Amino acid sequence: MIGTVALFFLVVFFGKGNLGGMFAVPKWQLLGGLLGALYVSIMVVAVPNIGVAPALVAVIAGQLMFGAVIDHFGLFGGKSIPLDIKKMVAIVLLFVSLFLFNHK
Fold this sequence. Notes:
By secondary structure, the protein is mainly α. It has one domain (26-102). It has 4 helices and no strands.
């Protein structure tokens, strides 16, 4: 909530845009703020349980995996870049490293 208020005042005093424009954008684009808050909440819970390094490796592995899927199918208007064996091996190795970080 504090971040929302701070950003509101930054936009009001330093922004060059129109606050009413927020209602003109497609609603799915506003999900970024909610997903960011969800990410922070998950990290607050995960880091004390598994540690900083495994939490960050999990985030990076997930981002690379979904990035490869987005590239493969050309989602969000991007150019389709097929998933090849090198990318699949790299993603598998990231998840192996995540397992090794968490294995005691």
